[in-house]
């Protein structure tokens, strides 16, 4: 199983808070891989979780279904020549197998810096019945594949604002 899938499952099981309205943004740079992720002031770097390069957690309180708004980055080495479309397709085929009631809502093509990327919006249901709303940015930089995932509860009363904020975090990601 790919590390990004394990990381997405772990993230989905973590507790998730409300959206920050802070205008200041912070920048995290990974010490080994060199990628960067910007996130709102008031958010914190989460504890180290196996398979996740970095996780940022929105401020509390925990919202619907014990979910706290968060974003995380996973990565894996790929064979030379793997395209974003191939990587994204392989990732989604695993999501369909692992995530109960997986439903893709939309897909956008974009760029992060000089790299082509896909933004995938979807929902799925945890085993405890809580429905999650996730956005994933999928990109490839050379032979490194990245999946940046933003998570909130689908039943959140602030869903639209949370999705907008998570999308901003994801498109601010920059591979090395």
- What is the percent of helical residues? 10-25%
Gyration radius over CA: 15 Å
Give the number of helices: 3
Strand residues, percent: 35-45%
CATH C-level label: Alpha Beta
Give an overview of the whole structure.
This protein has helices at 3-13, 84-98, 159-171, and strands at residues 25-29, 36-40, 44-45, 54-57, 70-77, 100-112, 115-125, 131-141, 144-153. It has 176 residues and is of the alpha+beta class. It has one domain (3-171): Mog1/PsbP, alpha/beta/alpha sandwich (Protein Transport Mog1p, Chain A). The strands form two sheets. It has a seven-stranded antiparallel beta sheet with strand order 3-4-5-9-8-7-6, sandwiched between helices. A two-stranded antiparallel sheet has the order 1-2. The longest helix has 15 residues, at 84-98. Residues 3-22 have low confidence and may be disordered.
Q: Could you give the topology of this structure?
A:
Blueprint: H1 3-13, E1 25-29, E2 36-40, E3 44-45, E4 54-57, E5 70-77, H2 84-98, E6 100-112, E7 115-125, E8 131-141, E9 144-153, H3 159-171
Antiparallel strand pairs: 1-2, 3-4, 4-5, 5-9, 6-7, 7-8, 8-9
Give the key terms:
Protein Transport Mog1p, Chain A; 7-stranded antiparallel beta sheet; single chain; globular; disordered N terminus; two-stranded antiparallel ribbon; alpha+beta; 176 residues; 9 strands; 22% helix
What is this entry, summarized?
This protein is of the alpha+beta class and 176 residues long. The protein has 3 helices and 9 strands; from the N terminus they run H-E-E-E-E-E-H-E-E-E-E-H.
């Amino acid at each position: 199983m790919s590390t990004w899938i394990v990381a997405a499952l772990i993230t989905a099981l973590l507790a998730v808070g409300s959206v920050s309205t802070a205008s200041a943004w912070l920048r995290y740079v990974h010490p080994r891989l060199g990628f960067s992720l910007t996130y709102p002031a008031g958010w914190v770097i989460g504890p180290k979780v196996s398979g996740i390069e970095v996780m940022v957690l929105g401020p509390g309180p925990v919202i619907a279904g014990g979910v706290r708004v968060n974003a995380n980055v996973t990565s894996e080495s790929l064979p030379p020549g793997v395209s974003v479309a191939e990587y994204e397709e392989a990732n989604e085929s695993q999501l369909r197998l692992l995530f109960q009631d997986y439903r893709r809502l939309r897909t956008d093509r974009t760029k992060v810096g000089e790299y082509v990327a896909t933004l995938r919006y979807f929902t799925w249901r945890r085993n405890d019945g809580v429905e999650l709303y996730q956005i994933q940015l999928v990109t490839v930089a050379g032979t490194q594949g990245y999946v940046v995932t933003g998570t909130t509860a689908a039943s959140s009363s602030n869903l639209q604002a949370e999705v907008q904020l998570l999308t901003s975090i994801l498109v601010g990601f920059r591979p090395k």
